[in-house]
Amino acid sequence: MQYSIGIDIGGTNSVMGIVDKMGNILFEAELITKDYEHLEGFVDASYDELFPQIVKLGKNNFKGIGIGAPNGNYYNGTIEFAPNLRWKGVLPLAKLFSDKFGLETTVTNDANAAAIGEMMHGAAKGMNDFIMVTLGTGVGSGFVANGKMIYGHDGFAGELGHVIAVRDGRLCGCGRKGCLETYTSATGIVRTANEFLETKSTSSLLRSVANITSKDIYDAAVQGDFLALEIFQFTGKILGQSLADAVAITSPEAIILFGGLAQAGKYIFEPTHKYMEENLLKIYQGKVKLLPSELRESDAAILGAASLIWNADKVLV
Amino acid sequence: MQYSIGIDIGGTNSVMGIVDKMGNILFEAELITKDYEHLEGFVDASYDELFPQIVKLGKNNFKGIGIGAPNGNYYNGTIEFAPNLRWKGVLPLAKLFSDKFGLETTVTNDANAAAIGEMMHGAAKGMNDFIMVTLGTGVGSGFVANGKMIYGHDGFAGELGHVIAVRDGRLCGCGRKGCLETYTSATGIVRTANEFLETKSTSSLLRSVANITSKDIYDAAVQGDFLALEIFQFTGKILGQSLADAVAITSPEAIILFGGLAQAGKYIFEPTHKYMEENLLKIYQGKVKLLPSELRESDAAILGAASLIWNADKVLV
């Protein structure tokens, strides 16, 4: 049996695991990312977690390490200026891991890793053309065309979260205005809720909640709360409009929604699908499936990163 | 020597030629597209023009026929519901040509054909990731990623002219509002001129022109006409904004502008580049070249279509 290692580096937590080619996760570990002042310390801690298991399964059976990381660059194997990490500048992530472990290491961003995981084990199995959209704290995406991940010229393709959904709209963490992720991420929908509560007089269950989360909005919607439903309509409209524009570029077979906000099910899927269809150029109407991810949220990060190794066209040493 | 045939079907005229692998056009002919009530008659007329030349060069030396056509579908070899052609519905274009000529025939839309021509003989030589944007009567585009044309799931990818540049903006021929091509095509810039002339009181050389064309706006700009320069600024701003969004999806090495409006040179390139840079996510800034096509306007259509044959991953018979 051959194995690969999948590591998902997040701003808060990082998860890692050993995965076989069928997508079974044989071992899992977690680190608190921000406990590590330097990337080198994080690499050492990962080694301490994983290496005993690698030895147990036989190091020769390991094909490599796949890492999904914010601003992970596929071509250089680097993390570059990731705003949510303590580790600043351009960091040779792949090199540090491959030197320490003696295993080939491939890096990409987390949404691309999720897309590859979905293609190997999830809702995009057998598809050559699809878009993966992650609706988490931010909005990420991975575009696959002709059966291959689009990394782009510089390794940073697929930033759907930063297309301008509303010209001169909400201020984004990236310094620009109106980015899709300021509206359709878990944090974006909370901004919408707070705006609606302030500008509308509709009564709502949300009025009695302090520090509203996206989960609160979902819970209110499930109870039929009119304002919560309106918040989902608004969010789905903006997401659907931006997806319609993305379809005009790559014309995918499906768009797969993943992440916290996607778990709101019909409350987000129905308006998103409706407004996507309304905004599609006629030749695309009725053709593009809008699907939920088929990977378990907890597994997806590790599976996706590990899949990089099976899928990699180019593996960095 | 091997040859291929390139045919560009336009709403008004169609051009066709015999091309060698170096990109030399050895023979050229033109037909008035709208003279032919049925596609079959057009195929016969093309045969009459081309076949004597094919015989002269030796039919066995011909590798196939490439056709760029409005709403041309790469996968099916069809034209599907092309609004600018007399021939309605779904038409088996590749089959009719291959049956008549006894040569393999590949079809795509005109902007994709131009992109392939540019990749083989023009400004995109050696590039794996670029976007071709044609600014003609409409706005077309071809996206290349990982060295391959993105045809999408249905063969219709790359409709950048129909991303929504201005939400609830100008009515487009496609029935929707605010499409990029209503602003940044040769016809779009004329709409802008007429709007500006009506809503602004600035004096302008254009005020004395009846039935303004994009060429008139260019001529006025060359003479330093303030309103004409403002029209180009406005057009470049909208184009630059939409290009910045497209970069966030495929992260190309270059964007190549082609077609009538691109010939306005610095008047369109400078504002487009400025506003594209201003609207790019930081990681893409200063990385994406904005280039003019290196194909002669008159050759590009034939060369691009012929290039389909050398480049085709899949050739329809």
Entry summary:
2 copies of one chain form a homodimer. Chain A has 317 residues and is α/β, with parallel strands linked by helices.
What keyword list fits this structure?
five-stranded mixed sheet; homodimer; 21% strand; alpha/beta; 317 residues; 9 helices; 38% helix
How would you describe the overall organization of this protein?
Chain A contains 9 helices and 13 strands. Chain A is an alpha/beta fold and 317 residues long. In chain A, the strands form 3 sheets. Chain A has a 5-stranded mixed β-sheet, with helices on both faces. In chain A, helix 1 packs across helix 2 and helix 6 crosses helix 7. The longest helix of chain A has 25 residues, at 226-250. The A-B interface holds A 71, 80-81, 128-129, 143, 145-146, 148, 150-160, 162-164, 166-167, 174-176, 241, 244-246, 248-253, 279, 281-284, 287-288 and B 71, 80-81, 128-129, 143, 145-146, 148, 150-160, 162-164, 166-167, 174-176, 241, 244-246, 248-253, 279, 281-284, 287-288.
